Amino acid sequence: MKTLLKNAREQKGLKTREVAQILGIDQALISKFESGSRKPTREQISKLSQLLEIDFETLMITWLKEKIIYEIGDDEFALKALMVAEQEIKYNKSVSKLKISKTLENLLKEIDLLKTKLDSYRQYDSYKITQALELEYTFESNRIEGNTMTLRETDMVINEGLTISGKSMREHLEAINHQEAIGFIKDLMQRNVSLNERDLLSIHNLILRGIIPEDAGRYRKVQVMIKGSTHMPPQPFMVAKEMEDYFIWYETNKNKLHPIILAAEMHERLVTIHPFIDGNGRTSRLIMNLILLQKGYIIANIKGDYESRMQYYQTLETAQTKNNKEDFLLFVAQTEKENLERYISIIAQ
């Protein structure tokens, strides 16, 4: 652990003082982590992993190994105890594994068949198709949040640089900003980087840039209520810790869950924390679609018409207030399936 941390820090060209300042950890603790005289907490492991770009799983395994050895040492019963513990961990893991319904399981199988089919048509893909579908995504995502621009008007603002009479400056900026945010998540996808707090804040910064500049890319400092929902987001002083747990959950589950489930969970968990004054919905959908793109799927474009919007909000409400995510997971999976079917019908013509 100590060698791993020190080597990673030196490779990044950082001093212990700089690491301490960035992570909000006492400099003396950083030095103790590297000397081996003090062990980081799980939360500190997550922060160090992201800053020093050390694979989270590698760091966690090293951390847990050292904790185990410290606790049991060379006790004569140590190996037998480890064998018993291994069996118990396997049992607990199988019990705690996310349970999904047969309906959702079958839908995921259908989606994966469609993805395989799409992969065989990839050579027929074109920039024009992608551009048109991304424009639709910007239009629908903004429409969910109340933007009144039509698809054609959104196109004119983004691709022709025109100003639409009767539409507010905010609506113009929402269109431009969202399109730039799509470009940003595509860049992240191509670089194949693991989602981290810095990138999430950058996405939100793009969404609110020029609209509410003082809150763009910053967690909220006040309590908020979600219009039309009975869910009450956490108090502002809890947001930073909730977001820390959010990224720990992601690192722990990113290679365990089906990509559709992972993407939907990351969407629901973020919008439930509601860490920003505004732009939570757009940011959550972008995070969901970043994960889908990274896993080789396509953008799940949730429509902004009344019926689709109400179904979207109702399934989220159920997930947030009744601790039942089934309807929301089904909604996202069905959306992805429909988008895959449409995409294939376009490029297979």
UniProtKB/TrEMBL annotation:
The Fido domain, residue ranges: 195-334
Coiled coil: 97-124
Residue ranges of the TM segments: none
MF term (GO), any: ATP binding
A Pfam family the protein falls into: HTH_3
SMART domains recorded: HTH_XRE (SM00530)
Domain annotation HTH cro/C1-type: ranges: 5-59
Residues marked Important for autoinhibition of adenylyltransferase activity (site): E145
InterPro entries: Cro/C1-type_HTH, Fido, Fido-like_dom_sf, Fido_containing, Lambda_DNA-bd_dom_sf
Residues annotated as the enzyme's active site: H274
Keywords, sorted A to Z: ATP-binding, Coiled coil, Nucleotide-binding
Residues noted as binding ATP in the record, renumbered to the chain: D278, G279, N280, G281, R282, T283, S284, R285, Y312, Y313
Domain of life: Bacteria
Alphabetical list of PANTHER family matching this protein: FIDO DOMAIN-CONTAINING PROTEIN, FIDO DOMAIN-CONTAINING PROTEIN DDB_G0283145
Record-given protein name: HTH cro/C1-type domain-containing protein
Species of the source: Flavobacterium bizetiae
